[in-house]
Prior knowledge:
The protein is an alpha+beta fold.
Amino acid sequence: MNNDVNIKPFDKMVEYGIVSTVEDEKKIIRQINKYLRSKEIKNLRKETDKSMLEARYPFNYNYFYWQGTKRGSIGQGSIWHLELLANKDINGKMQFPEREDIAFFFLVIKHNVNLMSEETNDGRDKFFQGLIEAIDFPVEIVYNYVPYEERRNNEEYLEHLFRKDFE
């Protein structure tokens, strides 16, 4: 593990598309939860909190699913975070319009990649590879972030908050 306090930590973020239909939602959730439980991790949480949903702007959702863990964390930060969202929001706007064959996608955030031990990073990689295999649908990378890159649509969300403050 690198203990140099001058190194800015970064997160490895990847968005994976699940080739599926909207009717497959329950099966996908069931498969993910089964895998999480096999690793002694709680089921995905169904998020309906208004502020959490608003943070997905410019997309509008009634809910999304997420889970994360602090197991093996540095300080108070979590070691990984996962979000599962529909490709198409409630208004029909698509996160990945070029991929109509993807009804759902999930964002994986592996926190503090450059500060974690090789063993921890390898363990996370194996964990998420197992998750991908457990989903039992074709899964493809649809967006791969570079280190220090903000989440897609983050600027639109911040502009939205700024405008909202002055309305």
